[in-house]
Amino acid sequence: MEKLDRIAFSVPEWVLERWILVAYLIINWRAKDLADRIQVRPDKRFYEVVAKHLHAYVQEGVMPPDDIAPAVLNLADDYMSSTPGTGG
Questions:
Q1: What is the number of domains present in the chain?
Q2: What sign for the dihedral angle of Cα 62, 63, 68, 69?
Q3: Were 78 and a residue from 58, 64, 69, 85 both cysteine, which residue would form a disulfide, CB within 3.0 to 4.6 Å?
Q4: How big is the chain by its Cα radius of gyration, in Å?
């Protein structure tokens, strides 16, 4: 394999001005393909756990476990404001 000492190339100025957008696009350009291939549906136990902690928080003021608290609190906010749940 040959070793190249130098390679000359130019980067358009708009790329440098918007480097974070370009980096995001490069990282995520195939993310939709990957997301379309992953089909995960929560099972019954998932809904039972969420319902249990949502009910405990809304009805009794009991905080959910730290690892799921943000999602449960978001659902509680949605429930209290009568908006469709987003869960995240």
A1: 1
A2: positive
A3: 85
A4: 23
Predicted model pTM:
0.51
Is residue 61 in a domain? yes
DSSP 68: T
pLDDT above 80 for 61: yes
pLDDT surpasses 80 at 26:
no
The verdict on residue 17 lying in a domain is: no
Q: How far apart are CA 71 and CA 50, in angstroms?
A: 9
> What's the rounded Cα separation, in Å, for the pair 31 and 36?
9
Whose tokens are 């000359």? That residue is 8
